[in-house]
Amino acid sequence: MSALPELTIEAENLVKTYGSLVAVNDLSFTVKRGEIVGLLGPNGAGKSTTMRILTGYLPATSGSVKICGVPAASQPDAIKRHIGYMPENNPLPEDLRVSEYLWFRGRLKEVPRAKLRRRIDEVLELCDLKRSRHRVLGRLSKGNKQRVGIAEAILSEPSVIIMDEPTIGLDPHQILLVRDLIASLRGRMSVIISSHILPEIEATCDRVLIINAGRIVAQGSPAELRREIFGRTNYRVELAGDPAQLPALLAAVEPSLLPSSAGEADADGFAALTLTAESHLDLGEALLRALAGTGYRVRALSRHQPSLEDVFLAATRRSWDARLPDHRPPTGETRAPLPKL
Questions:
Q1: Is 71 found in the same domain as 58?
Q2: Distance between CA atoms of residues 56 and 216, nearest Å
Q3: C-alpha to C-alpha distance for 57 and 62, rounded to whole angstroms
Q4: 0.90 exceeded by the pTM?
Q5: Binning pLDDT at 50, 70 and 90, where does residue 327 land?
Q6: SS3 helix, strand, coil % of the chain, rounded to 5?
Q7: 125 with 260, same domain?
Q8: Which alpha helices (DSSP H) does 137-221 contain, by range?
Q9: Could you give the CA distance from residue 286 to residue 265 in angstroms, rounded to a whole number?
Q10: Who contacts 59 (Cβ-Cβ below 8 Å, separation ≥6)?
Q11: Are residues 150 and 289 in the same domain?
């Protein structure tokens, strides 16, 4: 068997239209071997359409996709051998038992009989389904059905796993199990996950693609996206001391470090301040040393970074701001102002 290429997914200038509706608009990205990538976007942004194009279930209007070097347009059946796909609404035959369904899907995926029984046991263990292996699919809970879908997606050990909302309907324990399962695939399989549970994306993914109106509006690791979108770091400090000396002290630690807000001092003389720096380095230790060395009393110091939810909202709002000149409302209509960050 030939070695896998370094890039397992290559999408270039993808476009998908439905009449006058543009669902995917000039989308280009790559995924490396063993990388876990999160696909984020509001409802209707084009995430599910993009996933269906990647799997070969839906042809693109224009553009190209390669899975493990195989072109999807000309060889849609061949790329399916490299992909494990779990759609958002996973269709399951309700009259089969869990083990029967996985055996059926394994044979369709051309897993050798000599290997399949052992592989079914492995995925049942990984997905915490061993106690449900003889249960009828139609009688399973929503969460267990989701886990059967994940088990089926990884059954043939494909090079690429594509999951559309894999944790929907799961309880917190099951979400943690799925998170650990996906993390265990890192380095072995390339994984694309679409989800609205942003903390799960941040905890699991190496890189994030944010899509809005069919376009990629931001991409990178969560840390890179914070730097790109916000470009600053906030610190919250509770201290007591002479406020007049504070600006010079902060400038000595980092020239861009400035107080952005301050609260009233309490009965003990401590006031809460918010400090903002353009630097992305962690200045906490240097700031603490400088404050303690000049007679300030420090009760608390913490670094606050925007969450992935903040990044997501800012990126999608920014993309709509950029589109406004070309999407003015018809004469006589008014558009509600966009919220400011």
A1: yes
A2: 20
A3: 15
A4: no
A5: very low
A6: 35, 25, 35
A7: no
A8: 142-154, 172-184, 198-204
A9: 24
A10: 53, 73, 76
A11: no
